[in-house]
Amino acid sequence: MRKHSLLLLTAIFLLASCGQRPSENLEVNMDDVDTGELQISSETMNDIIQNLASPIEVAALISALNVPYSTHYLANPESLSANTTSFEMAFSLGALSADLGYLNMYEKTGTAVNYLSSINRLADALQIGQFFDFATIKRLATSSSDLDSLMFISVNSFNNMDDYLRETDRSNLSALMITGVWIEGLYLATQVAVENSNEELKSMIGEQKLILNDLLLVLNNYKNEQALGKYITDLETIKGIYDEVKITYEVGEPQTIEKDGMLMVVQSESSHVTMSDETLQKIIAIIEEVRNTHMNIKA
To answer: How many domains does the chain have?
Structure first.
């Protein structure tokens, strides 16, 4: 499956018609953010991020299956508590971004306003709201004639947000945003799989085994931080089930392509996922449990 950079996630939810509505302010004590020194290089971290499946890819696959739109799959932004930790906010920020990818695919721009407003509050509470130019984004989002500019501003906003978290020794929050995106995107896919038997969707769910390993590589850099322990423990539980998934690779014929005016020979490769229906059901159940726990949603 083709992988997209996670940095496109901002473009997903900002492509929807957006606006803001009055709501209670979120407050967070930044002293509860334990800082830690990463054990992996920035280059490695960027590689991991770029290998994450974009929420838009998940939403596009769901839409292609002609599955009817359902609010049942989505988190309720109105249920977010004003009294929460910065870690929970970072996770929710990522998760709501994935939901907005789904809303965008089904052109539910009216509903997307509530999600964008909640994301705005979360970003402000985490002191990264300055990287979202909502006035410009709203103008571009309501004018379908300039989507390229909207895409650029959206991606640039997320890049700046991520960079700022790292510069201020809060890369742990960046890691939790990534985790929130991944969990919610996989939750959407698995919930659709409950009612729709599709091999491509099943394969995509199985391929997340590779992404999960990368997420654990990132989060384990903060294993000494008590607040992140619950996230690591839950991902380890998910990994225990994914160990039942087998992924094999088949090398194809070399292909000649033109790049920058030069001919290059590239090696093609395809993957094959082997996963029983029983394992799929286990994955569906554990993802729902973990997602609802960290989004504070009653099952």
So the answer is: 1
